[in-house]
Amino acid sequence: MQKKCKSLTQKAVKEKKSKRKSITNPVNPNHYGEPTKPNFILTKDIPNYFCNPETLTIDGYEFIKKDEIEEVIKGFKQYDNFDSYIMPDGNVSKLAKDKKNYEYKVSKTFYMDEKDAKKRVSVTNIEVLDPDLGHSNFKKQTLIYQYSLVPKGDPREVPDVTEECIRTVEPVEALVKTLDQFTKTTNWSNLITKNKEENYVQTHVEKNDAVARIQTSEYHHIHDNNIKAINIQVRAFSGAKELKKVENLGFLQVYSKEKQVLIHINKILAKMKTLEESDGGDFSVRALKDITGDKELKWLHTQHKFEFQKVDGKFKGFSDIRRNNEVPTSVDLVCQKYQFESTEDKDIKYYVLHIIETTDKELEPFIGKCLVQKEDEKHQSITKPDKVFKFMLANFNFDCSNII
User: Full-prediction pTM beyond 0.85?
Assistant: First the structure.
């Protein structure tokens, strides 16, 4: 006989609200216009739906087998996830201290279509600590919710980034309207210190080392998938008097995704496979000899050769494999990177990836050839700590005379 979930419907369940402030909230229904507000199920009701899936009749929701999820989220990018804990008293908590004594752990992961930021998928799973509260569906089934978002405002109000990246330093509150038609896709933070050259760089040591923390949030424009934004905020630690000037300010950059230089090897290779040999545009495929012999290009530097192994369809660097205490078992790609500069415009750089050897059948036609990426500094987002601080300090117009 199938075990029944412990009923939560008779309990006075109170979901605790987060006090964290955010410029945009990607999963808050109130942020979006009619008629497509997401109809999210309350956390307290999810276990009962898992136990009785036939009672779920809300549009967009569907139970699928767990091994089918990869097909559902193909072409989607994860942008958020969180765990909620349904406690023995019926309360819903998101506190880490409740990890050890919950009745139901509800995990939600949110995905966004990489080609259309309005299209979303949420994926929900359940775990229990007490086997007596379990149900076979908890291990076999996943609850998905496919929905679309329509933000408030005029969809024609799209920032113009055709000429250059838009950069501004303003109080955090002033950026709310600018980001109203954007949705947050990810965020991260980094500790910052000063090196021997007095440049601000990332560090992993907080005590006696870090002088500040940078909080970075990334956004997609709802109506134009090519437009992205980055908002950077600074928290200065004790003694960082200079950086205190830019606390409570946001460094917002709105830019074209298509104009950004690709860094990760798999994205570079995916782009390369879509191109034919050419010598123009932001991305091109050229022979190495044609690049080194181009009189309009000035060589800047050459990096050492990189070796990669193909793991689950993706190329993984030998250094990353060894970092995980593993040993590479095959050499599936050998390549080398170069950087050149335009002789006519120093703001124009060219990043070159030369394919030397590969076992990948799709990449074999590119052996001996290079993917060339054209970088225009006017279009690039600024993320290196030293450049971020220098720009913020040079471009804020607020009275800092009271800072001590």
Answer: no
Band of residue 54 on the pLDDT scale cut at 50, 70, 90: very high
Per-residue tokens: 368: 């001996």
- Could you tell me if 391 and 169 are in contact, meaning their C-beta atoms sit under 8 angstroms apart? yes
Residue 69's nearest CA partner among 27, 126, 124, 117 is 124
Domains of the chain, residue spans: 29-148, 166-257+381-395, 265-378
Locate 126 and state its tokens: 């359940």
Inter-residue contact 256 to 379 (CB < 8 Å) = yes
248: left (phi over 0), alpha (psi -120 to 50) or beta: left
Coil, strand or helix at 44:
helix
Place 402 in a pLDDT band, splitting at 50, 70 and 90: very low
Lowest mean pLDDT among 62-71, 167-176, 335-344, 369-378: 167-176
Asked if residues 163 and 378 have their Cβ atoms less than 8 Å apart, the reply is yes
* Helical H segments across 34-168, by residue range: 46-51, 69-72, 136-140
Backbone angles phi, psi at 44, to 5 degrees: -65, -20
pLDDT number for residue 398: 53
